[in-house]
């Protein structure tokens, strides 16, 4: 007997995919009548149309959580904008069309706050996505992600599809990519501090430390994505984030990493390195209207859990 709800997760072995697995398997976040299928890049190359169609025909999902993407931090994006544009356009077109062809009733795709206009007023909300060019450093990735929103509106207009998207702020947690060169800021800092501690050297933070970010714990995001799949019925995107008042500077984040790892050496800032966008403060007012009582994990607690995971799983962590 086929489960009445078969949820296929692309990018199922990544940071957010692993967090959803954790919430389903360890926290009893699954519901009766739901079957969960987590795909990784080993199961299908989503840049390939035929492979994507085949894996969707095989599992025939009723619901899709689309997390798969070609991703990387600021410095990797600056090197290969064309690759980010083309590869993500292919992935997104293949996934959304394959979902449509197997008659999936709901698709929730994951966007990013880097898609927001560079020149803007703050805080940014869901209505402002297309109001101007994104930051030049990662325009390829940003435009490809913005196009998912265009795609969703067109599927709704032409076929009445309930395909939507979520926009998390900076996600972090266990199973992240802790690569120092190509990873995101927080996992990069954790890995660098871990290594500097071992070598008895200072922690070198790239940039001035002044840019500000909102960080969301991957497990909190996973719980919210489950809510979106089940209960959020708009085609328009929804920002999934802690409040504006929870924004922290890179310097504050580095200091929190130092505390979480009990780092004893000096911390220095390499101001010759690029800072990227100064801030991209997002409003979570829409989310709060829907879920006024949602409790986010405090940043320091989430960061401690992430650091503990990294130290315990150092040999197998992506880095």
UniProtKB/TrEMBL annotation:
- Pathway note: Nucleotide-sugar biosynthesis; GDP-L-fucose biosynthesis via de novo pathway; GDP-L-fucose from GDP-alpha-D-mannose: step 2/2
Query: Could you tell me the EC number(s) of this protein?
Result: 1.1.1.271
Q: Which SUPFAM superfamilies match?
A: NAD(P)-binding Rossmann-fold domains
Q: Does the keyword rRNA-binding apply?
A: no
GO biological process annotation, one example: 'de novo' GDP-L-fucose biosynthetic process
Q: Write down the top EC class of this protein.
A: oxidoreductase
Q: What is the purpose of this protein? A: Catalyzes the two-step NADP-dependent conversion of GDP-4-dehydro-6-deoxy-D-mannose to GDP-fucose, involving an epimerase and a reductase reaction.
For this entry, the protein name equals GDP-L-fucose synthase
Species for this entry: Gadus morhua
